[in-house]
Write a structure and sequence with these properties.
- By secondary structure, the protein is mainly alpha-helical.
- The protein has one domain.
- The protein is globular and about 55 Å long.
- The N and C termini lie close together (7 Å).
- The mean pLDDT is 88.
- This is EpsG family protein.
- InterPro entries: EpsG-like (IPR049458).
Length: 369
């Protein structure tokens, strides 16, 4: 049953998102189906909330449950204060771990679905891509999923809304996401999107970053001066990531990021309405300043992965602008290839498929029969 729900989520939303290519007269003009949106929300909830992992090869879910019980019993936690506050809210209402997790998942998914439905010109294209890959890693990496949903909510409003104080709102929301998972503090750099730097200036900065990456590679993937930072951090959990390095593994997260950048650039370059496309292209460029972190650990591929929703939005918006064409159909195919690369390398190459992919489909307590 899990495979059926998963396949329907992807196929139905994708068909609705690209229907204009095989319905040239577009007799079914609606770009949004509330009915399909509701079904998609329910399907995503069942797939993520029902996820269990009995493989013994991954400890994320076990650690989250242990930390929740530890907080209830001893009122202590190693996690960030925002996440601890969420756990305390669950303990106040005497919720067991999985009931609390289900409640958080339901709220977090709304933070994705509502802005997508409100601002995307092609929301079902976005949901199709979300439900094909991100939903699997979201089920496994719970804290990152919550932070991702909070960030996505703030980022979509920042990029697409006309609110007067949207920049300030984005900063506040991003800080909240950072209190749930400290990785998300780095996205404060995206405030530079808002006319702070021109594209030419950003291109120059990224060129310098790439040159710096070459020096890091020559230096055996060690960042000059990093020891000073590690001494300041002391025993912080951040040192676990910053003190590691991978010889050639950085090629994969860099490839993932460059795929996002290429697709956003094509949408920006070929679109007649460049306003939103240019901001997402700039977001991909600006976050390339974190390429040196990719050279330490492939875990930092999350930096690029957490921007996938806005990339799916710019891709979906571009293919419904103007009239259908062979070029836009080719763009859809490139987007699907990019999705497959993320899917395969993340879930089959960088990770043992027995650890996350297989449990996602076989250990779902709601749908596995």
């Amino acid at each position: 049953m899990t495979y059926v729900v998963y396949a329907l989520l992807f196929i139905l939303n994708l068909l609705f998102g690209i229907k204009r290519f095989f319905l040239p007269n577009n007799f079914f003009r609606a770009r949004r189906s509330i009915f399909l949106m509701i079904l998609s929300y329910i399907g995503c909830f069942l797939l993520i909330a029902g996820y269990r992992n009995f493989s013994g090869l991954s400890s994320d879910l076990v650690n989250n449950e242990h930390e929740y019980m530890n907080l209830i019993t001893y009122d202590t936690s190693i996690y960030e204060p925002g996440y601890v506050l969420l756990m305390k809210a669950g303990s106040i209402f005497s919720l067991d771990f999985y009931s609390w997790r289900n409640l958080i998942i339901g709220i977090a998914l709304l933070m994705i679905f509502i802005p997508i439905f409100k601002f995307s010109k092609n929301p079902h294209f976005v949901l199709s891509f979300f439900s094909s890959y991100l939903i699997i890693v979201s089920a496994e990496q719970f804290r990152n999923f919550i932070g991702f949903c909070v960030l996505t909510y703030g980022l979509i409003y920042y990029l697409y809304s006309d609110q007067k104080y949207k920049r300030t709102k984005f900063i506040v929301i991003t800080i909240i996401a950072g209190t749930i998972h400290s990785l998300f503090y780095i996205y404060l750099v995206l405030v530079l999107i808002d006319k702070t730097f021109s594209l030419k200036t950003i291109h120059r900065i990224i060129f310098l970053v790439l040159v710096f990456c070459v020096f890091i590679f020559i230096n055996n993937n060690s960042i000059p001066g990093l020891n000073i930072l590690l001494n300041i951090l002391g025993d912080s959990r951040a040192t676990i990531y910053l003190s590691q390095h991978t010889r050639f593994g950085f090629a994969f997260p860099m490839l993932f990021h460059l795929i996002n950048t290429l697709l956003s650039y094509l949408a920006f370059k070929k679109s007649k309405d460049k306003s939103n496309h240019v901001n997402i292209y700039k977001a991909n460029l600006i976050t390339m300043i974190f390429f040196p972190l990719y050279m330490l650990q492939t875990t930092f591929s999350r930096i690029s992965r957490n921007l996938l929703i806005i990339n799916y939005m710019t891709q979906g918006d571009y293919i419904v602008e103007g009239r259908p064409s062979a070029n836009k159909l080719g763009y859809v195919l490139i987007s699907l290839i990019g999705l497959f690369i993320w899917f395969y390398f993340s879930l089959f190459y960088l990770t043992n498929p027995e650890a996350v992919f297989k449990p996602f489909f076989e250990d779902n307590i709601f749908l596995s029969i």
